[in-house]
Amino acid sequence: MENGENRTLTVEQYRQIAVAIDKQLSRYIVGQRELVHDLLVTLLAGGNALLEGVPGLGKTLLIQTLSETLACSYARIQFTPDLMPADILGTMILTTQEDGQRGFKFEKGPIFANLVLADEINRAAPRTQSALLEAMQEGQVTISGQTYDLPKPFFVLATQNPIEMEGTYPLPEAQIDRFLYKLYVPYPNENDLVEIARRTTGASLPVVERVSSGKVLEAMQKLTRTVPVAEPVFRYAARLVGATQPDQPEALPSVKRNLRVGASPRGLQALIWGAKAEALLDNRKAVSIEDVRKVIYPALRHRLILNFEAQAEGVNPDTILREILKNVKLPVVKD
Fold first, then answer.
1. How many CB atoms neighbour CB 279 within 10 A?
2. Range of 251's domain?
């Protein structure tokens, strides 16, 4: 594929490259098949992902391995309470030129990489968290009135620990909404634990091979955008998002009882983008209703803002989405 990076990909080539990436990730990441698949869908759809799980489950290793597989530039930012926006974006520094003249020069921060790992993002103060907003939405940063484009492709893959709340700051709703997917990292079962020990405690570690590149990934993203979506599929996705709004008269009792705010139009976009990637990975050239149903949990779970009572009772957004799937009717297809 190296000599054809600028060519238009076929659906079969798209799928072959995705399978190759998945195979390389599986060399290091034991189990976690759904997590790896959903992370790959996020990249193919051109989005950012928020990974949530307790420490030690391989979140950081997964992202590092992905960068090696794609041969993309990679930067890890360890978020801490004292981290400042300039530590992420970069800053203006005073320099002396060869002719002796002094002036300011922009020193780029770690955000200027293809794949940025925002490790434990909820440990930083809101001011620092907000430094990522423009980068995640627009693919650029603005420093001292000057705009700088970020390299393409560009992804932010953030992690957060759900159990340790001391010294953490909840992510603002505006930033959470900019993550295409929120993915849970489950605890491995006994067989997976044994395999992890076998692979990581021996004399040598698995070797990850480069199977793609940033240019190829951009071509795959462009192909994802071209997948056609029929009107009934659009309407069904819109009904799912509309069903999360607690102020609607037809809202389900569980939605009215537990939600303060439902999914935004970005949630609808996430459903469609994710469904397009799912269709291509399944070797199909059009999005189906089932594709939309498949991606509803990672695409919408973080966009449902629970009210105080629901948080106190430990209500899971996935439970609400499951009920929505059961009750939202399919659109009627007219002949």
1. 23
2. 227-327
Helices (H), the chain: 11-28, 33-44, 59-70, 85-89, 126-129, 133-138, 173-176, 190-200, 214-225, 231-242, 253-258, 265-281, 289-300, 308-312, 317-327
Amino acid at 236: Y
What is the reported pTM? 0.88
Do 269 and 306 belong together in one domain?
yes
* 65 domain residue, yes or no: yes
**Under 8 Å between Cβ of 118 and 111:** no
Burial (0-12, 13-18, 19+ Cβ within 10 Å), 134 = middle
Q: Which residues of 284-293 are buried (b: 16+ CB within 10 A; e: fewer)?
A: eeebbeebbb
Domain match, 189 and 232 both: no
181 strand-pairing partners: 49
Site of tokens 């994802």: 224
Residue 254 binned pLDDT confidence (cut-offs 50, 70, 90): very high
Q: Which of residues 153, 184, 218 is at a domain's end?
A: 218
Give a yes or no: residue 14 inside a domain: yes
Token pair listed for 300 = 């919408």
- Say yes or no: 296 and 154 in one domain: no
Q: Is 266 helix (H, G, I), strand (E, B) or coil?
A: helix
Reported as a pLDDT band with limits 50, 70 and 90, residue 165 is low
Q: What is the mean pLDDT of the chain?
A: 86
- Name the phi and psi angles at 158, rounded to 5: -110, 150
User: What residues pair up with 249 in beta bridges, in sequence order?
Assistant: none
**Hey, is 183 helix, strand or coil?**
strand
Specify whether 27 is located in the same domain as 111. yes
Q: CA–CA separation, 52 vs 197, rounded Å?
A: 23
Give the Cα separation of 312 and 37 in Å (integer): 32
CATH code of residue 42: 3.40.50.300
